[in-house]
């Protein structure tokens, strides 16, 4: 994403099959983010820190290229 990108107002990220390697740098207050779908993003190496995404309900990372999962993943609730 461009360096001027401001993700704070995002509610839904739907980028299946994207060619991005990463979305953005740093930690952002993503309190409105409810859904993130990055499935089939084969170039995706890392995901941003979503520890401040307190409203996150759905996270789809069905892609095989992630190098590692960030530590915030362990605090997410599963259904």
UniProtKB/TrEMBL annotation:
Gene3D superfamilies the UniProt entry points to: Ribonuclease Inhibitor
Domain of life: Eukaryota
Record carries keyword Repeat: yes
InterPro entries assigned to the protein according to its UniProt record, in alphabetical order: Disease_R_plants, Leu-rich_rpt_3, LRR_dom_sf
Signal peptide: none
Biological process, per Gene Ontology: defense response
Protein's UniProt keywords contain DNA repair: no
Alphabetized UniProt keyword annotations: Leucine-rich repeat, Repeat
PANTHER family attached to this UniProt entry: DISEASE RESISTANCE PROTEIN, LEUCINE-RICH REPEAT-CONTAINING PROTEIN
Name assigned to this protein: Uncharacterized protein
Organism per entry: Microthlaspi erraticum
């Amino acid at each position: 994403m461009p360096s001027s990108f401001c993700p704070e107002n995002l509610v839904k990220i739907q980028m299946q099959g994207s060619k991005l390697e990463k979305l953005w740098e740093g930690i952002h207050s993503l309190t409105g983010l409810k859904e993130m779908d990055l499935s089939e993003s084969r170039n995706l190496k890392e995901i941003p820190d979503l520890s401040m995404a307190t409203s996150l309900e759905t996270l789809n990372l069905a892609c095989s290229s992630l190098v590692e999962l960030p530590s915030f993943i362990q605090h997410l609730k599963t259904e």
